[in-house]
Amino acid sequence: MKHLFRLLILLSVIIVGSPDASPQSRKGVSILGDSYSTFKGFMSNDRNRVWYSTVANPERTDVSKVSQTWWHKLIVDNGYRLEKNNSSSGATICNTGYSNNDYSDRSFVSRYKDLGSPDIIYIFGGTNDDWAKSPMGEFKYEGWTESDLYSVRPAITYLLSSIRDYYPGTEITVIVNSDMREDVAEALRTAARHYGAGIVILHDIDKRAGHPTVKGMTQIAEQIAASEKSDTH
After folding, report:
1. Residue 117: burial class (beta carbons within 10 Å; 0-12, 13-18, 19+)
2. Averaged over 134-162, what is the pLDDT?
3. Exposure of 50 in the CB half-sphere (CA atoms within 13 A)
4. CA–CA gap between residue 43 and residue 37 (Å, rounded)
5. CA 99 to chain centre
6. Residues 103, 97: contact at Cβ < 8 Å?
7. Residues 6+ apart with CB under 8 A from 135
8. Is the pLDDT confidence value at 67 over 80?
9. Which of 17, 77, 84, 122: disulfide with 44, CB 3.0–4.6 Å?
10. Are 109 and 149 in contact (CB under 8 A)?
11. The overall pTM is greater than 0.85
12. How many CB atoms lie within 10 A of CB 200?
């Protein structure tokens, strides 16, 4: 009887202590994004501006719960865990923002080092570069200067090259927004292909005030999941 009792205790220790039972065994996801990926209280930096919160302005959005965001849905549905969400509303990928203002305090190229230790990184941006009419520049794959980072194409290649080097072995996926100006969308696709990143091209996303609604958030999560399952992204 004693032997049986000890065996049961040993089995319970093995099961509870097994890697599969630990939250840390699940893939950690980090997001580098703009307003589409924000939610108040869930950003890695409290200084980051947010679009979504528990107090929803009906003219702007019907999203009022973090569980309604695309990234939260994707993480829950796939059994991942959130590592870090470093998203900031209004942020451009390059350092040139609205009215040609210097956005180097919030741009993607200035925030990529604050993503923790993820297994998967989703980069979801370019929308503000489009809306702000940031200069496009030319593709460049090495030897970037500070001035290069104020234009879209070299900033995107710099960002992907830097992320690949800074987070070796990490899965990187670039999400291309629907209704995006073609030159910005093509810059994202071209850079992603060059650096071997996954590409998800969104389509027909439901939006209000230019931002995903609850329905749109679900569509984004579903389209990312479908793209990853098909191995065509």
Report:
1. exposed
2. 98
3. 22
4. 9
5. 25
6. yes
7. 94, 96, 150, 151, 152
8. yes
9. 84
10. yes
11. yes
12. 20
